Amino acid sequence: MRMKKRILILILILLASAGTLLAVTYTQPFAAGHGFAPTQSGACDSTYTDNAADSTDGNPVNSVNSLCIGRNDVPTTTWKKSLTWIDMGVTPGNTVTLVDGKFDHQRTRQTHAQVAQVGPLTIMDSGEVASCMAADPEAVFSYPNSTGLISWATRDATGGVAPIAACQPAATTVVVRFGITPRTGNNASAQTQVNVDNLILVITETTPSARSRAIMISMKSDGTMERKFGPWKTTKGESQ
């Protein structure tokens, strides 16, 4: 008795009709009308001010800053703006898959030693209840416990971060936020000022047609090929 044989040749996992990956860049140089607004938490003994239009200490021009004057104060200003991914350049109907954020920062003034901070850079849902991201696009940065100017530098320690599923559609409204904590030293007249400029989000998007499909190719005993395309169709009898 002759046994029929079928030899499995290959199993492939392919992308069929793969969606196109695109990258758009949202840049915020904090020019007039930038729309980021400050929310203060905590207090300063003497003065606690936020400047949304600092034309003196920008990189190279214009920035936002938070300034605290007082003894051992630990306030935090959260600068934030509500907008959709589409507002930031994503194509309507597409899906956001990755966000890579960065920003420039400077400790402009520190008269008495203390650890001022900048960050984190976060992207929240529209109600600011939960993060839209798997992790913060940039974590908190702490300046050294010292005095004086620390000149402009770019905070870019984290790579691309994926948004959670609920925040991936292009039309999703998110709140982009970053913090400034101008901690002051142990003196009644201690002053700390931190500036932020040039916020940039590189956003990767994909078209909605992306899907995966498996192809199984086997050889029958008569030498013909059988290809199975899961899960849509099967074609048989194709010659080798």
Kindly list the characteristics that best describe this protein:
Jelly Rolls; disordered C terminus; 240 residues; 2 domains; mainly beta; elongated
Strand element count? 15
- How many helix segments? 0
Query: What's the alpha carbon Rg, rounded to whole Å?
Result: 27 Å
Residue-averaged pLDDT: 86
Strand-pairing-aware structural class: mainly beta
Indicate how many domains the architecture comprises: 2
Percent of residues in helical segments? under 10%
Element-by-element helix/strand order: EEEEEEEEEEEEEEE
- Overall shape: elongated
CATH architecture of the largest domain: Sandwich
The termini sit apart by 26 Å
What portion of residues belong to β-strands? Answer: over 45%
Q: For this structure, what is the CATH class of the largest domain?
A: Mainly Beta
The biggest beta sheet reads: 6 strands, antiparallel
How is the CATH topology of the largest domain named?
Answer: Jelly Rolls
Catalogue the unreliable spans.
1-18, 210-219, 229-240
What's the quick description here?
The protein has no helices and 15 strands.
Describe the fold and architecture.
The chain has 240 residues and is an all-beta fold. It folds into two domains: 7-14 and 211-238; 20-206, Jelly Rolls (Sandwich), CATH 2.60.120. It is 0% helix and 52% strand. The two termini are 26 Å apart. 30% of the residues are buried.
